[in-house]
Amino acid sequence: MNPRQRAGAFGLLAAALLIRVLLVLSMRGHPYFDTPIVDSAAYDRWGWVIATKSFWGERAFYQDPLYPYGLGIFYKIFGRDFLWVRLAQVVIGTFGLWMLFEAVRRIVNYPTAMVALAIGAFTKTFVFYDATLLKEFLGPVAIEAALFFWSLDRKWKWLAMGAALGLGALVRGNLLLVPLAAAAMLAARREWKPAGLVMAGALLCILPVTIRNAVVAKDFVLTTAQFGPNLYIGNNAGNLSGRYQPPPFLEAGAPEFEERDFRAEAERRLRRPLKSSEIDAYWRGQSLDWIGGNFGAFLGVTGKRLLMMVSSFEIPDNYDIPFMGRFSAVLRMPLFTFGLFTAPLAAAGLYLSW
Questions:
Q1: pLDDT grade, residue 253 (50/70/90)?
Q2: SS3 readout for the chain
């Protein structure tokens, strides 16, 4: 890049960081800033236990561990300060945008990279989750890191790409599908060594978690035991809306109740104590049985989810972004949304790259 191009990229990155810092500062002193709720509360409690009581824990992971362990290490070093945690997150999120910019610049060209950086810098959901005590902000960073390594001309790039995606799988379990798909694509092109290196990189990051689960819980759980319960929440006779709807045996839709109540209900039905892997397998089987016996309903619910995915409205989960906009002018700004802006560009990019 020439000096003018560097200045342009630096200016956009500085703007991305600034709007995220302003969001953090604007939310300070308002509801939910110092009182985490739902998943945020669970991650905060877990991080505090890691920092002060038990680093290894006592049972197989139910939730993805990377973000809570990051919180725990932060709390151990700097103390439990929600302001500085959020500021650290916005720095990490902005660094992810730099990796996205560099990847697109190397793979395509500078103008396209600037467009990608501008969209990432000013997409409302990206801005919001970078400043929120939730794991969601780390998923895009893992993907951005994988794209960055992919764009390099280095012998170790495939191993590093796999490692980035492996770390992503410790943020969101479904990201494990991405290194599998990347390796399959490379294998289909008979690029056997790169395919193997991608999987090796991913497994190197996942394996310590698998070993930890085996040692602590005496059970084989690859990363977490949440896949089956999650699949059942979305695919059962009581959920035809396509949105989050907890089954009637859950006391409340929060992580600590999910793990406890799914275990209790599975053990009640099978009339014996179960390991975490057995509970996961049971609810996975229940979900697949329902899908197989109600395939038309499953297709209808999946169609609803696809429509919600491309909507410009972010379905509330832990936090309702429009509601949070009452407390921050940043969230009331006309920032990019997925449905009305990013989704058509994503579809065009998929078509052109194909």
A1: confident
A2: CCHHHHHHHHHHHHHHHHHHHHHHHHHCCCCCCCCCCHHHHHHHHHHHHHHHCCCCCCCCCCCCCHHHHHHHHHHHHHCCCHHHHHHHHHHHHHHHHHHHHHHHHHHCCHHHHHHHHHHHHCEHHHHHHHCCCCHHHHHHHHHHHHHHHHHCCCCCHHHHHHHHHHHHHCCCHHHHHHHHHHHHHHHHCCCHHHHHHHHHHHHHHHHHHHHHHHHHHCCCCCCCCCHHHHHHHHCCCCCCCCCCCCCCCCCCCCHHHHHHHHHHHHHHHHCCCCCHHHHHHHHHHHHHHHHHHCHHHHHHHHHHHHHHHCCCCCCCCCCCHHHHHHHCCHHHCCCECHHHHHHHHHHHHHHHHC
